[in-house]
Write a structure and sequence with these properties.
The chain is of the alpha+beta class and 180 residues long. It has 5 helices and 4 strands. The chain has a 4-stranded antiparallel sheet. Strand 2 and strand 3 form a beta hairpin. It is globular. 26% of the residues are buried.
Length: 180
């Protein structure tokens, strides 16, 4: 069965939340050197494509970025190159030539400032959400440490309180009630 893949919308000077997923959710990024390779190549290509990165996190089977485009059509080029280069190098490092590493990526165009900051928090909270750590500062493969060092804990807490991450609804009792 084919998964639904909506068309991408590439706009200039626009914020995007990007999620890149490893094929079949495998932990191909588990070795720290794979995470370091992905982060290094991500930083190089973002600079080369003249994009701005506002947040990032790398876990064992996926990553997230919050970026702003200068020229929207540069985004798919960045993603193709990032996945091609990192898959070749990771496969070489891990002795798995020809293995498909990346499944796909998803981009979400931010429409409001609230979207930007909520995704900023979502990205940084991802290692806690997935049970890697209890404290955000304990996950080294994230931009959280940069903001903690440069902006401080009080600033990060203020952003969290103003733009909380709503990941899911615990109960759906509201569906049972009558419409008013």
């Amino acid at each position: 069965m084919k998964r639904h893949r909506p068309p991408h919308l590439y706009l200039d000077h626009t914020f995007y939340a990007i999620t890149g997923s490893v094929l079949h959710g495998k932990a191909f990024l588990r070795p720290n050197r794979a995470k370091e390779l992905l982060h290094k190549k991500m930083a190089e290509l973002i600079l080369e494509c003249q994009l701005l990165c506002y947040a990032w996190v790398i876990l064992d089977d996926h990553y997230h970025m919050l970026i702003k485009t200068r020229i929207g059509r540069d985004l798919p080029q960045l993603m193709r190159r990032l996945h091609a280069i990192t898959s070749l190098r990771m496969n070489r490092q891990q002795g798995c030539p020809g293995r498909q590493v990346w499944y796909s990526y998803w981009d979400t165009c931010m429409r409001h400032e609230r979207d930007i900051w909520t995704h900023f928090n979502y990205i940084h909270n991802n290692p806690v959400k997935h049970g890697y750590v209890r404290n955000l500062a304990d996950w080294p493969c994230s931009s959280y440490g940069h903001y903690l060092a440069t902006k401080g804990e009080e600033w990060l807490m203020d952003v969290w309180e103003r733009y909380p991450v709503v990941d899911h609804v615990e109960r759906d009792d509201f569906l049972a009630g009558p419409l008013k």
